[in-house]
Amino acid sequence: MKEYGSSVQKLVDYIMTIDEEEKRTKYAFLMVELMKQIHPNMKDSTQDYSKKLWDDLFIMSNFKLDVQAPFPPPSPESLGKAPRKVSYNQHNLKFKHYGRNVELLILRAIAEEKLEDKKILVAYIARLMKGFYVTWNKDSVDDSVIWQNIKDMSENLLGTIVDELSQEGLGHARVANNARNAYNAPEYPNSNNNNNRNNNNYRKNNFRSNNNNNRNNNFRKK
What we know:
Elements: H1 5-16, H2 21-38, H3 47-60, H4 100-111, H5 115-137, H6 143-153, H7 159-167, H8 172-183, H9 191-221
């Protein structure tokens, strides 16, 4: 094996010439410790690393080394065997550049019962898909293509919503603004931001009115 060099290979060949099994085993353990020192960056006390070193020793002996090793020798058939191919689940995506998560979002929009929330979901999905499309194709895309893709991916179950949004002439920017306004309503958690803004405005106005009152009182005293 090239990573250990010819000197290590000669030592392994010498160990195989030793007749006494006990002495041969002792030298094999010393050989493994030497192999650890050759690659100090790979030094590890885990069992897998130690097994790898013993496997390398058996491989360099052409699987003929007979010693009392802490691990069983590997089979010659495993040497050079190609790893098992890991299958990649494509989920039968209609449009791979949108990804699986967009299809899940569309299923979520289909399952939504509230009409207004369904519109909001479709609007955000369309905006997201347009971003993915531009990233994949590095070119601009007409909104009609995105709307049609949503119809195809939803098997036209969102067709009515898509037709309504497109007929109203809602561009993606306006759709996003309408969706943000809807999510800023009191029933949504992030409405606290609006409450904070209102409280801050109230404090500012109250502070200004107090300052004006103080100035009027000072003027009267003079």
